[in-house]
Structure formats: structure tokens, C-alpha cells
Design brief:
By secondary structure, the chain is mostly helical. It folds into 2 domains: about 80 residues, Orthogonal Bundle (Endonuclease Iii, domain 2), CATH 1.10.1670.10; about 100 residues, Orthogonal Bundle (Endonuclease III, domain 1). The longest helix has 18 residues. About 35% of the residues are buried.
Length: about 210
């Protein structure tokens, strides 16, 4: 059974992460719930930097469900051709825009089931939208958070869902709104996959990772 970080230590971790970054934000560019939804759908197997380059032109051409439907799958595909799986993603963005137009009065629903019913939207994407657009205390487990949860001992789990469940159970409520962003940013820039920068880590003394690079 994996060793888990103590609950008191988790609280201290987020206290420190919040001091380093008081107002954590997603690195995806967006202006509202719809453009956020599209950006997150496009971000699967792509970098935020790459997505932002693609969406700059896309959102200039279409930043509402109606405009996206009018642009069509081929038009969407043209704008996002620099990112991976662009043809499939273009079809998903077109279809989800059509559904928002037909069933949700052009509004992104603040409902997990309705979000996950949209093409290209899974649990992780729904969690990002619920957290970022609607302020819900959800935690979307991507590769960075999965690594962070396991490596630190904060939330060990064999699957993203298991790590999410542990984080929701163990992270104090007062940190849940920002926890998603603090962990992603820490995993992306400090607790990196190949060689974590433990010397620059504000929670290194609390982390249970044995192979620290100090």
C-alpha cells in the first residue's frame, strides 16, 4: 500500500503554492465559457502554447457556437491544422457547437452530464470548464496532476479517476478552487516528468518522492 502524505502536510503544501502564485490561471487563451470549452477540447495531446497559436485565428473568425457552425468543419480544420488530430477535433468542435445551438440556447451548460454529452468532451475537459468558467471546486487530472499526486504521496492512484477521487477527498476545501491550477503549473515547471527541479520546490521537505534531485 502506497505511503500517503499526511493531511496536515497537504494543507501546508497548498499554503505555500498559493503564496508563490496567489491567483493561478489556466495558460489557455479564452474570453468566455464557449472559447474555454473549445480551447480545452483542442488541447488534448497538444501544448497550451500550440493551442493558443491555433485559436488566435479561429476565435477571430468564430467565437460563438453560431459562428463556429457557420464556419463549418473544413473552416475550423483550416485554422487548427497546426495541432495534432486537427481533423477529428474540428469535427468535434463543429458538432458540439451545433448541439449548443440546438439544445442549450448557445450557452455552455453548467452541468457535468450535459458537458460530457458533447462530442470531444470527457471528464477531464468537463472538470476544467466547471472549475475555470463556473468556479466549481473540481480537479481535472491530466498527466501533470497524475504525476504530482503519485510522486508527492498527496493522492496515490493507478488511474486518473483514482487520483481525482483521492484529491477531492484529501485536499482541504479552502484550496479546491485553485488546486487544479497549482498542481498543473507545479508539475509543468517544477515537478517535471524526467527531472524534477526539487531544489526550486517549495514543498520538497513535505514531498514523499524518494529520488529527489537536491
Amino acid at each position: 500500500m502506497p505511503v500517503k502524505m499526511k493531511l496536515a502536510a497537504i494543507d501546508i503544501c497548498f499554503e505555500r503554492l498559493s503564496q508563490r502564485q496567489p491567483d493561478p490561471q489556466t495558460e489557455l487563451d479564452f474570453t468566455d465559457a464557449f472559447t474555454l470549452l473549445v480551447a480545452v477540447v483542442l488541447s488534448a495531446q497538444a501544448t497550451d502554447v500550440g493551442v493558443n497559436k491555433a485559436t488566435k485565428g479561429l476565435f477571430a473568425a468564430a467565437n460563438t457556437p453560431a459562428a463556429m457552425v457557420a464556419l463549418g468543419s473544413d473552416g475550423i480544420s483550416h485554422h487548427i491544422r497546426t495541432i495534432g488530430l486537427f481533423n477529428t477535433k474540428a469535427k468535434n468542435v463543429f458538432k458540439l457547437s451545433q448541439i449548443l445551438l440546438d439544445k442549450h440556447d448557445c450557452e455552455v451548460p453548467q452541468d457535468r452530464a450535459a458537458l460530457e454529452a458533447l462530442p470531444g468532451v470527457g471528464r477531464k475537459t468537463a472538470n476544467v470548464v466547471l472549475n475555470e468558467a463556473f468556479g466549481e471546486p473540481t480537479i481535472a487530472v491530466d498527466t501533470h496532476i497524475f504525476r504530482f499526486g503519485n510522486r508527492t504521496g498527496m493522492a496515490p492512484g493507478k488511474t486518473p479517476d483514482a487520483v481525482e477521487k483521492e484529491l477531492l477527498r484529501r485536499v482541504p476545501d479552502r484550496w479546491k478552487k485553485g488546486a487544479h491550477h497549482w498542481m498543473i503549473l507545479h508539475g509543468r515547471y517544477v515537478c517535471k516528468a524526467r527531472k524534477p527541479d526539487c531544489a526550486d520546490c517549495v514543498i520538497a521537505d513535505l514531498c514523499l518522492f524518494k529520488a529527489k534531485t537536491l
